[in-house]
Design brief:
single chain, 414 residues, alpha/beta, Molybdenum Cofactor Biosythetic Enzyme, Chain A, Molybdopterin biosynthesis moea protein, domain 2, Molybdopterin biosynthesis moeA protein, domain 3, 4 domains, five-stranded mixed β-sheet, 8 helices, 19% helix, binds ligand LQZAQKY5, binds molybdate ion
């Protein structure tokens, strides 16, 4: 079959592959537990201790020898002398003699010889002697050592994204630090002499810089540390200076604007001379003009995204997000797609992957997806209304209402 990619454009997958080949995971190091929330674990964690680490009581009550109390009932209570008390964190009594009881609190170590705990509610709560009016089963309310986790068990595998429950488990087995990869520092630079900071007054020929907020937020949502650099005008010297300044703190740089065919497309003009930068068209809509490569002695990856806000956002999701996730050691790199039923027909250009802004909703009948707004890549209002992108493959030129399609759910963690 002939290559359906339009002349002069490269397939999206080719650029993604080039990016993933260029970008490497950041080196891992031990980090304090609370700093690792949302990061990928960079080691296999084997349980250094069992949990519980000793037999302990599941109730506030009395530790007893089961055979002493197995006949206890309301009508025939069993009376035992209370020989002491064990609180949580106080292993004051190590062994229990038959024919006696020891007061014990929840979590406190069960003395050797005790084979059940009688909760307060089944007794008269006696201090010197206790009357037991209900028999526990053998072992009841004793939480045995290793019941939950056994020393040597594989607890968490390398690559696990660390959430609150994982941090809880790591702390429970005594880990104060864990090896993980740091958050990449992502620098976002908006280029364009028409751009102004939100909050300033606008002249008729100017617009507010939306992209750096859009992309810095997207980078942060992806787990990166995002630095939003101020607006850089369409001036090669200013752009080169801004880039050089940022190189010291960046693991990855994203620029927007200045990569198409305009007379003042300063990004392309300035970076084209770097042998390690590629500029060209990708067979996707929106997001055709792209640039990617590395600059500086550290070979810092640079993404030069198109200026139209929708193009910039969709390009970020397609190209920059996988790079950030690879740096963090998070799998999968690319946002997964799921299936949804289309509510309206759409057309799509032949040979290009089209990413259509859409809203997905689920009910008992399944997941449905509706396109929102028009095709224009300046329509940031419609972008904000969307929570999904419909992924229309290059070979598809028309889809009907009722067709099953692939969608990227934009706000979902993966
Ligand atoms: N003759 C051609 N013109 C254009 C082509 C083409 O192939 N031939 N491609 C079009 C496509 S597709 C896109 S996408 C844009 C990309 O252009 P640039 O990356 O050079 O971006 P700019 O020209 O600087 O800006 C485009 C558009 O976006 C607005 N913009 C830019 N930065 C921001 C920002 N930070 N916040 C909000 N809006 C921003 C800018 O004002 C322009 O309206 O090129 C087409 N043209
Ligand atoms: O490729 Mo552009 O991103 O369509 O507006």
């Amino acid at each position: 079959m002939a290559d359906p990619t339009p002349a002069g454009l490269i397939p999206v997958a080719d650029l993604v592959e080039r990016i993933l080949d260029t970008v490497s995971p950041l080196p891992a190091f031990p980090q304090p537990l609370m700093d690792t929330l949302g990061l990928a674990l960079a080691e296999d964690v084997v349980a250094p201790i069992s949990l519980p680490s000793f037999d302990n009581s599941g109730m506030d009550g009395y530790a007893v020898v089961h055979s002493d109390v197995e006949g206890a009932s309301e009508d025939a209570p069993v009376s035992l002398p209370v020989v002491g008390e064990i609180g949580a964190g106080r292993a004051t009594i190590l062994a229990l003699s038959p024919g006696t009881a020891v007061k014990i609190m929840t979590g406190a170590p069960v003395p050797k010889g005790a084979t059940a705990v009688v909760p307060y509610e089944w007794t008269d709560r006696g201090v010197a002697r206790v009357e037991i009016s209900r028999a526990p089963r053998e072992g009841q309310h004793v939480r045995p050592a290793g019941d939950d986790v056994r020393e040597g068990d594989m607890l968490l595998e390398e690559g696990t994204p660390l959430g609150p429950r994982h941090l809880g488990l790591l702390a429970a087995v005594g880990r104060a630090t864990v090896r993980s990869r740091p958050r990449p520092r992502v620098v976002i630079i908006s280029t364009g002499s028409e751009l102004r900071e939100p909050g300033s007054t606008l002249a008729r020929d100017a617009i507010y810089d939306a992209n750096s907020f859009l992309l810095a937020a997207a980078a942060r949502a992806a787990g990166a540390i995002a630095y939003r650099v101020g607006i850089v005008p369409d001036d090669p010297t200013a752009f080169t200076e801004a880039l050089t300044d940022q190189l010291v703190r960046a693991d990855l740089i994203v620029t927007t604007g200045g990569v198409s065919e305009g007379d003042f497309d300063v990004v392309k003009e300035t970076l084209s001379s770097h042998g390690s930068m590629w500029f060209g068209g990708v067979a996707m809509q929106p997001g055709k003009p792209q640039g990617f490569g590395t600059i500086g002695v550290d070979e810092t990856p640079v993404f030069t995204l198109p200026g139209n806000p929708v193009s910039a956002y969709v390009s970020f999701d397609t190209f920059v997000l996988p790079a950030i996730r690879r740096m963090m050691g998070m799998l999968p790199y690319e946002r997964p797609t799921s299936r949804a039923r289309l509510t309206h027909g759409i057309s799509s250009p032949e040979g290009k992957l089209q990413l259509v802004r859409a809203v997905h909703e689920s009910d008992r009948g399944g997941t449905f997806v509706s396109p929102v707004g028009g095709h224009g890549s300046h329509l940031i209002g419609d972008l904000a209304a969307a929570n999904a992108l419909i992924v229309v493959p290059p070979e598809t030129t028309a889809l009907q209402a009722g067709d099953m399609v692939a969608i990227r759910k934009l706000d979902e963690e993966f």
